[in-house]
User: Fold this.
Amino acid sequence: MQATVKWVDGRMFLGESGSGHSVVMDGPPELGGRNLGVRPMEMLLLGVGGCSSFDVLAMLEKSRQQVTDCRVELSAERADAVPAVFTKIHLHFVVTGHQLKENQVRRAVELSAEKYCSASIMLGAAGVAISHDFELHDAGETR
Assistant:
């Protein structure tokens, strides 16, 4: 895997992934930025959410769960000192679908946390306390 981060100006950078996608990163005005892009640490948090969501949805599809919506709400705490590393991250999955089986969703979330999500497992190994939970919503009867 490769990527490039190129300085644009001020505290703005353009990240380019090896797969050909770009994202703007910027800082807040008080640190010389113009607030025109996501912060680098926010991007890291989004990466954890994306990685785990990818796993959970793939496993639910394989177990033939009829998912109509899936989101993960992330909350994180950072150290008060420099470096202001993440100390805690919580992932709260909200899964909506038709006749979802709670045990299947629980297992998908657990497997992502314990075995498949490289991003959260890597941060956990570095000392970040990572927790997960979920809630289910019924999308109603299939038509």
The chain has a mean pLDDT of 96. The two ends are 43 Å apart (CA to CA). The chain is about 30% helix and 35% strand. The CA atoms of residues 82 and 132 lie 27 Å apart.
